Amino acid sequence: MKYLLITLVLLLFLNFNKVYSDVLPNDMFSSTEVVELQMTSLQTNSKNNNSGIYQCWLFAHPENKKFTGPFTNFKSMISNTSYKVLLNSLKFKTKLLSKNKKITKFSVDVDAYDNKRYNLTWVLEKTNLNKDCMNCWMTTVVTQPKFIGQLN
What we know:
Number of domains: 1
Radius of gyration: 15 Å
Shape: globular
Number of helices: 6
Largest sheet: 5 strands, antiparallel
Helix content: 25-40%
Order of helices and strands: HHHHHHEEEEE
């Protein structure tokens, strides 16, 4: 958690689009930090260059990328489907549902730009990508957003 806080503080002082899109998967991030990093990236996505969507894509598990395809497909999937409620959301809240050594599941409530609240299940698994990522948490599944209520 402290690494995520340090990263977020740095973003306040540096060029957001360049720095945030350069956060790569590595062993120092917990599963909680990864889902919060991805959600914060989507919440603060820049429409100019889609840096938030790109940052989220960097933490997509290789098995997930087999289904979502390259970044251009991923960007379209987020921007043009029910997942668009994740972009520029008002706030989000994560809740741990289950965790073992290899898989973690979260419930994520999102207060979207359309003044509605949605819920998703976010699943992360550990993987080996490269020498810096021999045991990294990466996203394997995100369920379709379910409408759970109107915001007051």
